[in-house]
Structures are given as C-alpha cells and as structure tokens.
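User: Predict the full complex structure for these chains.
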Amino acid sequence: MAEIKLMKGNEAVAEAAIRAGCDAYFGYPITPQSEVIEYLMMERPEDRTGMVVLQAESEIAAIHMVYGAAAAGKMAMTSSSSPGISLKEEGISYMAGSELPAVIVNVVRGGPGLGTIQPSQADYFQTTKGGGHGDYRLLVLAPASVQESADFVADAFRLAFKYRNPVMILSDGVIGQMMEKVIMPEQTPRLTDQEIIEKYGDWATTGKPDDKERNIITSLELDPYKQELHNIKLQAKYTQMQEEEVRYEMINCEDADYILVAYGSSARISQKAMDLARAKGIKVGIFRLITLFPFPSEQLNDLAGRVKGFLAVEMSAGQMIEDVKLAIEGKTKAVHFGRYGGVIHSPEEILEALEQKLIGG
Amino acid sequence: MTEELIIAGFGGQGVLSMGKILAYSGIMQDQEVSWMPSYGPEMRGGTANVTVIISDDRISSPILTQFDTAVILNQQSMDKFEETVKPGGVLLYDPNGILKHPTRKDINIFKVEGAKIAAEMGNAKIFNMIVLGAYLKAKPIVKLENVIEGLKKSLPERYHKLIPLNEEAIKRGMNELVEIS
Amino acid sequence: MDIKDIIKPENLVYTKTKNMTDKVLSYCPGCGHGTAHNITMEVLEDMGITHNTIGVAPVGCSVLAYEFMNIDMQQAAHGRAPAVATGIKRVWPEKYVFTYQGDGDLAAIGGNETLHACNRGENIVIIFVNNGIYGMTGGQMAPTTLQGMQTSTSPYGREIETMGSPLKMTELIAQLPGVHFVTRQAVHTPGAVRKAKKAIRKAFEIQKEKKGLAFVEIVSNCNSGWKMTPVESNIWMVDNMFPYFPMGDIKVDGKLVK
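Assistant: Here is the predicted structure of the three-chain assembly.
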C-alpha cells in the first residue's frame, strides 16, 4: 500500500532522494532549505540504502564533491538556496562542460546578495539561462506541490543520466517549507558497483582496466576549434531536450480569454486567483510551466492565437515574462505581475493585476 | 468543505505543531491538507503563524490573505489578523495577555482561557491542545478520533505515552469554549 | 654489435612505466613536475593498483596531468581537487584516490577545501608540488612565494607587511588529527627522487590501510618563473626554499615528528 505522509517540500526531496536510489548527497546549510540535509542526517540513509550524506565546508565544496561522485558514475545530488546556488555555479558549469549527470535543488529565496530568507522566484534567469560561465543549459523542473517535490527527484536523475547533464529542481521557500500530503514512491535499489561499471564504464572514472583506454572527465579543451565542436555537441543535447522534454499543465484553458502563466508556488496562488476571477465571470485559465528549460514556447504560441492576453505571474521583477513574450511572437498581449524581494503575492493582488494591467490596460 | 485557517501567536506556544496535528487529522479522514508556516528568525521567540487548509478538493493557493477562521494567541497577532477573517467567519482567541479585544461585529468571536487552564492542569505544553479542543468545538471539521490518530502520526513514538494527557486537554478545551458574539 | 642485438629483454635495465602515456610533457625543460608525475605513476604500477586508482588534476601547470598519467582521471576546478576527491572516495571507498596540486591551487584558492578534507581525515593522498610561484599563468606570486622574492605581481619582492608571510600549508594541516602522514620531499637529485618515491608509496599504503589522509609536499623548482637556468634554479631552491620549507617527515603514524 502506498505510504501517505505529511511532509515539508524539503523533507520530501530528501526522502525521495533516498528512495530514488541516490548514492550521495553533499550539502551545506542555508535557510530555507536546511531541512533537506537535516532530514537526511536524521534518517541515516547509509543504513537504509548505503547512500552517503556529507555536510561539506561550503556550497562550493559540496558541488565539487557532487562533481567527483558524478564523474565516478554515481547518482549524486546537492541542494541549496539562492546565495548558495551562486557559489555552486562554478561546479555546475564544470559539470555541464564535462557532461555529467547530477541533481541540484534550489529552494529560492529573495535577493540580490544575502537578500532575505523569504520565498522568491528571482533566480529564473540564473537557472534557465546558464547561471555559470559558458554556453550551457540545465534541464529545469519546477515543482508546485510537495508531491511534485518528491516525484521530480527520480525524474531529475533519469533525465540527468539520459542527457549526461545537470538537472535543477527549482523550488522556492513556499514549496520547500509547506507541508502537504504526499505519497512516497517505492524504494528503488541503488545500483551495485558492478552495475555502474557495466552501465557507465565507457565514460565514468571507475578505474582503468588493463585492457581498456582510460576515462578522462574534463571540461578543458585548449584548441578552440575542438572546443567549438564540443559546444555544438552540447547544443544538440539542448535541442533534443526542447524536442522531447517539454512539460506543462493547462487548467481551464479551453474557454479562457485570459491566461495566467506561472510556475511553482505562483502557479498555486494563481489557481486561487483564477477561481476568484471565474466567480466574477472572467474566463481565466492557467498555463503552468513544469519545465522552465526546455520552455514550452510552441504550446504558448498556439494558445496565443486563441486568447486575449497573458499575465505572467512570478515572484520577481519580470524574468519569465521575457520568455513568454519571445514564445508568443507578439500575437497577443503579455504583461507581468509579481511581488518580489521575498514578498508573496496574494490571489487578490493577482486578480487586481489581471483586471487593471491586462483587461483594463 | 474547505476550511482556511490561520493560527498565530508566539514562538514556543505550539502554534506550528497545533497546525500540524490538525493537518494530520485531515489526512486521517482522507482530506487534502496544506500547512504553510511563517519561518526564519522571527520564529525564535517572536511571532509565529501557520496557515492550514483542510479541504475535500485539491488545494490551490497555500498562501492566503483571508481566512475562514483565525486562532489568535497574542496581541501582535490580534492586531494583524482580526481584519483577515472573512465576514461570517470565526475568531478564536485566548484573552491571556490581550489588551485590545476584538471588536468586529460581522464575525463570530470565541475565547478560551488556554493559558489559565494549562496552568491549572499543571502542564504548559498542553496549552495548544486546549486551544485545539476549543477550535474543534467551534468548528468541528475533524473528528476527535482522527485528531488522536493525527497526534500519533505527528508525535515521535517516545511521546505516545503523553497522548492521553493531550486528549484530556483537547476535551477540556472543548468544554471551556466561550462564545462572545 | 648491432643496436638490434642490444634491444633485448635480458638487457633491459630501466623502462618507462606503462602508467605514463607517450604524450610529450607540456612542462618546461628542467621542471620537476615530470619527475613527480613519473614516480607517482611508478608507485601505482609497483603496488598493482593502477586499475583501481582515480586521480584528480588541478588548475595550474599540472592542469593537463591527465594527458600524461595513463589512468582514469578527472580535472577539477581551481582549488577544488580535495572536494572532488572526497566525492569520489566517499562513493568508491575501495578505490585509490589522489589529488595532484600546485601551491596556488592547494594553498590559496583551495585553502578551505584542503583544510577541511584534511580535517575530515579523508582517506585520500594529496600530492602537493610547491615551487613558490604561479607557473602556468606566467610567474605571479603564490602563497608560498618567499619573502623578498620577485614575481610579476610582487615585482619589488614579496613584502611581508602587505602580502603576508609564505604559507607553510604542510605544517598547518599536519596539526589536524585526521591527517596520518605528512612529509616534505624534493625531486632535484636521484637520491631525492628515490626518497620522494618512497614517501609517495607510503602515502598510498596508508590509504590502503584506511588510516587517514596522507600528504606529500614536493618542493620543486620553476626555472621559467624564477627566470633562471634549470641548474641555477635547483641551486637557488636548495639555498633559499629548503631553509624555509625544510625536507623530511613532519607527521608519521599520526604523530608529529618535529
């Protein structure tokens, strides 16, 4: 029988990691995501599955531990919140460059700088446009519930290994801190060392057998022409992601005149705003992004021909709105609404913005 | 049925755990629940609040500005949340330490002497269970047996011996609810 | 006698270890890195652990160490090699894991990673090549640059008042309980090379016995960065580097020896 639990989003990520068969978690405390490492330390996953959990000396060290473990063919992950993710960007860029699978969770808080510990979605640019240096992308999953916080962990690992590319789960202070009912997936056994060598021995640094060429994990290529070829190969992966991995949810879009485009906690709050609007007779639907990269451009473009406008609702000064505008190619109106700096917008404020900025504007 | 509730008071009053037990109780009777706390340094001895939603349907926003019920346990929270109760809604408070009592006429106001009763019962830690009992009397949204099941889920095994005491506190709270207006 | 008569197995007195590739070293002629690479690779072959070893290359002159060491290797970001090695070792505790780092990498930008990997007593080997300068980027000041020594970022000589003292990272980490073996060696003479190789062997034996972290510093020359001939640089190293960074064991069997 499925196990129903009441958990915080952060705890759900941690428990789901154990159950996904994750080999190692390396992390560093930061509010509002410290429950991830606290839960893991309390749970003793080394006894349950053999999973390694280590509190590193910094976010930088943690991501490079992930880099080492991922290079060695293991399922490794880390989590942090915005300022800590900035520190991790170095290692994330290295992993993208050397084509390694890993899962990184960002429980976003308000910035810039040390900012605030309150929820925010102001890391959209950082997450979807690269974040670290170089031409690379992360595949980005944005959970909007505790259940998705759990479900997306195994998904993220599957995608990370499919593409040999880091995958980010972009949560936020609301999703991380709130508790909801969650049905935990069954335990997936960790791969044995032998299975890892069989599956990933052609690239992972698991030790060079006498009869085989060595494996080198590096992002360095001094010859610019070779580096360009490597970049072209990376871009092909991102194109494939765009073709195969776009995920979204449409709620009440069939008859909608106006669409609220949102992800994560903003999508949840927008649903309440949609209910309020429909009660007033305004036909509103929700387009919820599940993958932020790849971005559901085609789907939004299709919708753009049928509706009177989009309100991009995000807890930032306007980041996702840029991708919405690019996607809809000016076919209809798109405006931004969001509170930011750690302030969470209310359903009523969203409704007001819809009426004043989109319908009346 | 959807109940949108805020519980607000000082850190250490058991505000968050009261919400958690309520959320667990909702799960016990197959309802959807969400529990969204205020978090961070403000919780360390400052004000703490938690939004709890229990519903027969999928829950949309875990963040709310209007509530069906507000359970208010200190003056700061009274100042902040009296206005957020929907017309016709419920405000339950403990008058201990309250200098400015609620004045709204369009809501149902109840009180419970939680701190006083807890002192009588000789255990400050059951304060929140007394308040929970009073709340359930005013708003019987979950059955007592499911609250006890929720307590079992919410408390670590080593504290299960305290469940009878908690149950007593909940019942006492139910009996001590006073309707003001 | 024809040369073909000489090239016979029974006449073989020395051969390059299979653990070094045939790639021409990218190091300047006279540099100690090649020798340090070579003896490390020989140790793996001697111990029969080549197939079970994963190396971590740093940023610095030895950034391309994986081109020369014929084993599974990973290239780390600047200073992060001990964290990367921690990640590998924790998920493959039966493998041998080592980092090979220079002074800028290990003692400056990677100071924190070095300190904490040592403090946790990660069961890895750290090989630390200290030549008192940033070689790869063209001769800038390193944490180990000696007082008064001229570099491109200390053109008037390292001034202690404003630039701090040369950092004795090796003595520093030797204080930590997690560190089992600490030694300082050199590779400028055949005798020194033999000793250094023995020390590296000992370091890997410690990893085999899971006793904690083993740390081998190799004080080396940088004739290009120091703007000397190879011979001059070795003499300068003995006269100037060795008094500040004295040769020998610092910690053996978990106990400080001096």
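Chain C has a mean pLDDT of 96.
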